[in-house]
């Protein structure tokens, strides 16, 4: 386990055979320590190796021999470690000692052994030792040692660290002094230590933390977080060219770490600690810095401010991460119903009181550093304890009296000392803090109840929710939320506002009643009959802007707007959207159709983009939590892909990206429209997995045109298969041993994703590659088949190559015509490609692969058993001649007016170039489907 030199072990005693894992060897190590009590240059290495060896023996003894710890405790060997530290023997010895102690405590598993090591208070002496923390290595091992000790904390071991008589808790107080250390790993370790401490359910220890350390620690922590926020805001303001995104990402990640740490403290649910932390977060950070900056962008004032986009961004993160009800409810109340008097009235009260402290609802730096505050509290505790010692059996009544004495001696630290953990009452100062918020809450309830008691219409309720009927006071924060959704020029602020509304609606801690007052959607809301008309109109306006050719709305903003609108107007019984709003939404959808028509092209790339975008949108829906972790959206929207920003979070660049954006806008608005009208999607995707031939399907291949071949795969495999080509797929089948004329599919792939090339030196061979559809436009195509096909002769090889090439062209053409029908474009007629045809009825019925359903089931009904791959031995021109006499068929099951009226009666309007005459009673179904 430990690398060490053994040249000195037993060298002068003739005991080379001594086991290094034994009590005898520990006794020998003790002898070495007694002979080397003073550290010198000559014995430094010897002492380091001795300490390592002792640690190794203790870990072995913990698992094998308890007498090892008996001897260690009897000889008081820990005192040697402490004496070595106190001699200031240099960084080498300190580092090695801290490292070995860390390893020792990490590997001790038995509680009895742990009690031995923690007894006599030597560990606490090492904790408070004055190390040279300017040395990074010493700092790293020291904080790691404290973290290891904190992991051993429980109701039994906490007494070794927290001294109730002297009111001292070195493990905790020494650790939190590094809460703002420049090294991030040290800060993370401090957070871990504090969380491990807070999880221990020891009331005297928790009361000590609340009374002596909570206010100094939380006030300095809040100031540290706020300082990072201001630095983050400065980085956003000075980086319009996206040059410092690395630094901005680090600052955002640090803020997220802070919020998760605060949430971890709150979910431990230590009530009196939560009260202190909530008070500081609300009145020293969230309200005076985050919320105040929403409507006050004048940098010339006395209060520190941040930019609007940063404020909205950080508030969204707060509501996405923190779900502690008292905190998020107070914050929601101010944003939705508060005004600037939340800040000004408190300032005036503080001035009138002529308090020595600054306004508590203000972002200010603590008057004392954390280390200084802890030192002052420690001395105050000692003075009080000289008059009245704190015995272990102090009852609840005596504890409350002691709390009152604390209040008289130290009014600054008097928060929450009037009762036990379950019976804490807010102090008078806390009551004043919440006074304005409570008054606003009462006024809001009164106003809402006045509106509700009257016989009002939904429009009047919505008007009341928007604030037009509430004339008692203005709501500047709510007005900002509505006004920032204007996307006429860009969606810079709109994206953050929508994220904030979404985060509030998804927050489990917010009382739904607070959101229902202004008819905002809530995650677990009950049945509703009305919604916020103002918000709905703003969201639909965003969609209208997104569907414009020169719209500056990013795809992330549009998707979030669609998500919020669905939450807003959908109830358990269905959609409650007003007809006028639905008509406006349909207008936006029509605009998206017109926009996509501008980019519709008959080229192959358009079909690939169309299907890729649909696949990407459905497989990876928006995750708002991940969106709000991306620092790049804080910078002004850009249109260049050179920044590396994801496509949905920036504006398009070039025709290809504009086409992709138009396709995605069309998909979103179409899906939203169908959802609100409670109609199923019947046309998308163009290729449905359930309609395709799959491996191991059994197909009726009677009277089908099959080509035998030998398939040589890339990995060297060789199999005999029959090649068959259908409308959309090519298949490799082998005969079914159970039924004659049936085949089992061993591979099926889409023709549109296939590449066929000849082999130069073999006229009987073809190289065929079929790619798997890409999960995103930027992902590399993955080949699902890459093989060489060898046919019996060069004639069959030419036939197979021609059939596959023409099949690919036909499959892509059919899908392009379906896209044209979606866009209400006239379907262009095309010539026969495959040499087969369908009737008008079957053309609309069998797109795609509907005729496989019955054959897969193996039904014995001859009316439904159909030949899948039929022969091509028809007279040339048969299908075309039959098609001329037929009216134009619709390419889809639900024909659009434009497509049905745009064709010519003199040509075959091909769904596909595969229309034939309606089969007579004499024709069997297998004679209709020809390849």
Topology summary:
Blueprint: H1 23-35, H2 44-64, H3 67-74, H4 78-86, H5 91-107, H6 111-118, H7 122-127, H8 136-151, E1 162-163, E2 168-169, H9 170-176, H10 184-198, H11 203-237, H12 245-268, H13 271-291, H14 308-321, H15 325-337, H16 341-353, H17 370-387, H18 396-409, H19 428-453, H20 458-466, H21 476-483, H22 492-506, H23 512-516, H24 533-546, H25 555-569, E3 570-571, E4 574-575, H26 579-597, H27 604-619, H28 624-627, H29 654-676, E5 698-700, E6 707-713, E7 718-725, E8 729-735, E9 742-750, E10 754-759, E11 762-772, E12 782-791, H30 794-822, H31 840-845, H32 852-857, H33 878-884, H34 897-900, H35 925-928
Antiparallel strand pairs: 1-2, 3-4, 5-9, 6-7, 6-12, 7-8, 8-9, 10-11, 11-12
Helix pairs in contact: 1-2, 2-3, 2-5, 5-8, 8-10, 11-12, 11-13, 11-17, 12-14, 13-14, 13-15, 14-22, 15-19, 16-19, 22-25, 24-25, 24-26, 25-29, 26-29, 27-29
Structure notes:
It is built from 35 helices and twelve strands. The strands form three sheets. It has an eight-stranded antiparallel sheet. It has a two-stranded antiparallel ribbon with strand order 1-2. Helix 12 packs parallel to helix 14 and helix 22 runs parallel beside helix 25 (555-569).
């Amino acid at each position: 386990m430990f690398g060490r030199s053994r040249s000195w072990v037993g060298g002068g005693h003739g005991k080379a055979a001594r086991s290094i894992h034994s009590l005898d060897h520990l006794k020998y190590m003790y002898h070495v320590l007694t002979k080397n009590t003073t550290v010198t240059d000559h014995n430094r290495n010897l002492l380091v190796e001795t300490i390592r060896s002792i640690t190794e023996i203790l870990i072995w003894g913990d698992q094998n021999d308890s007498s090892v710890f008996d001897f260690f405790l009897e000889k008081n060997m820990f005192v040697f470690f402490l004496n070595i530290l106190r001699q200031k023997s240099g960084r080498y010895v300190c580092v090695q000692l801290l490292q070995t102690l860390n390893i020792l405590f990490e590997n001790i598993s038995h509680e009895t052994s742990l009690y031995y090591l923690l007894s006599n208070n030597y560990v606490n002496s090492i904790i408070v030792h004055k190390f040279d923390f300017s040395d990074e290595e010493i700092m790293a091992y020291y904080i790691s040692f404290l973290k290891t000790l904190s992991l051993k904390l429980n109701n039994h071991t906490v007494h070794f660290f927290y001294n109730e008589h002297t009111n001292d808790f070195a493990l905790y107080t020494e650790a939190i002094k590094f809460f703002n250390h420049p090294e991030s790993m040290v800060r993370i370790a401090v957070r871990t230590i504090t969380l491990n401490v807070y999880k221990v359910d020891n009331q005297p220890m928790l009361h000590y933390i609340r009374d002596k350390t909570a206010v100094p620690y939380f006030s300095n922590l809040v100031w540290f977080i706020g300082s990072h926020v201001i630095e983050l805001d400065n980085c956003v303001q000075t980086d319009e060219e996206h040059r410092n995104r690395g630094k901005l990402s680090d600052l955002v990640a640090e803020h997220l770490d802070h919020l998760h740490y605060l949430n971890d403290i709150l979910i431990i649910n230590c009530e009196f600690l939560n009260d202190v932390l909530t008070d500081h977060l609300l009145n020293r950070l969230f309200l005076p810095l985050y919320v105040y900056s929403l409507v006050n962008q004048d940098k010339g004032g006395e209060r520190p401010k941040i930019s609007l986009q940063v404020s909205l961004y950080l508030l969204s993160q707060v509501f996405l991460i923190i779900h502690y009800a008292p905190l998020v409810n107070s914050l929601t109340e101010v944003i939705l119903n508060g005004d600037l008097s939340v800040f000004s009235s408190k300032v005036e009260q503080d001035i009138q009181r002529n308090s020595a402290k600054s306004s508590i609802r203000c972002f200010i730096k603590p008057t004392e550093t954390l280390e200084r505050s802890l030192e002052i509290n420690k001395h105050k505790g000692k003075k009080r304890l000289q008059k009245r010692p704190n015995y272990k059996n102090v009852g609840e009544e005596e504890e409350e009296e002691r709390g009152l004495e604390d209040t008289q001696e130290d009014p600054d630290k008097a928060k929450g000392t009037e009762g036990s953990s379950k019976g804490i009452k807010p102090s008078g100062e806390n009551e004043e803090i919440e006074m304005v918020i409570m008054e606003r809450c009462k006024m809001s309830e009164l106003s809402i109840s006045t509106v509700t008691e009257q016989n009002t219409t939904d429009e009047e309720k919505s008007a009341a929710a928007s604030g037009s009927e509430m004339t008692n006071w203005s709501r500047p924060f709510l007005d900002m939320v509505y006004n920032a959704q204007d996307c006429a020029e860009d969606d810079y602020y709109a994206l953050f506002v929508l994220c904030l509304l979404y985060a509030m609606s998804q927050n489990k801690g917010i009382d739904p009643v607070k959101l229902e007052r202004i008819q905002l959607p809530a995650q677990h809301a009950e049945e509703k009959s009305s919604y916020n008309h103002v918000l709905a109109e703003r969201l639909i306006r965003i969609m209208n802007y997104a569907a414009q050719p020169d719209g500056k709305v990013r795809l992330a903003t549009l998707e979030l707007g669609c998500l919020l609108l669905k939450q807003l107007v959908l109830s358990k019984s269905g959609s409650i959207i007003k007809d006028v709003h639905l008509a406006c939404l349909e207008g936006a959808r029509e605009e998206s159709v017109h926009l996509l028509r501008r980019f519709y092209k008959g080229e192959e790339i358009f079909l690939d983009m169309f299907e890729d975008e649909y696949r990407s949108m459905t497989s990876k829906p928006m995750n708002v939590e991940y969106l709000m972790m991306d620092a790049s959206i804080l910078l002004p929207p850009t249109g260049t892909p050179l920044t590396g920003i994801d496509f949905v979070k920036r504006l398009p660049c070039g025709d290809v990206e504009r086409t992709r954006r138009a396709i995605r806008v069309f998909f979103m608005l179409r899906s939203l429209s169908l959802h609100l009208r409670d109609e199923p999607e019947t046309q998308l995707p163009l290729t449905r997995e359930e309609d395709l031939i799959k491996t191991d399907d059994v197909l009726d291949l009677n009277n089908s045109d099959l080509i035998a071949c030998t398939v040589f795969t890339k990995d060297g495999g060789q199999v005999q298969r029959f090649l068959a080509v259908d409308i959309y797929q090519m298949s490799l089948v082998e005969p079914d041993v159970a039924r004659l004329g049936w085949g089992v599919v061993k591979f099926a792939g889409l023709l549109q994703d296939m590449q066929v090339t000849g082999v130069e030196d073999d006229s009987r061979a073809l190289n065929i590659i079929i790619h798997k559809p890409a999960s995103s436009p930027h992902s590399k195509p993955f080949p699902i088949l890459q093989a060489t096909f060898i046919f019996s002769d060069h004639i069959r090889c030419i036939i197979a190559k021609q059939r596959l090439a023409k099949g690919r062209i036909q499959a892509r053409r059919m899908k392009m015509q379906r896209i044209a029908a979606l866009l209400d474009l006239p379907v262009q007629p095309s010539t026969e490609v495959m040499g087969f045809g369908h009737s008008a009825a079957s053309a609309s019925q069998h797109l795609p692969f509907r005729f496989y359903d019955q054959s897969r089931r193996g039904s014995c009904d001859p009316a439904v058993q159909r030949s899948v791959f039929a022969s091509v031995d028809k007279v040339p021109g048969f299908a075309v001649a039959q098609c001329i006499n037929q009216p134009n068929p619709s390419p889809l099951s639900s024909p659009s007016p434009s497509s049905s009226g745009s064709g010519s009666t003199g040509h075959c309007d091909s769904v596909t170039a595969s229309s034939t005459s309606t089969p007579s009673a004499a024709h069997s179904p297998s004679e209709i489907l020809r390849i």
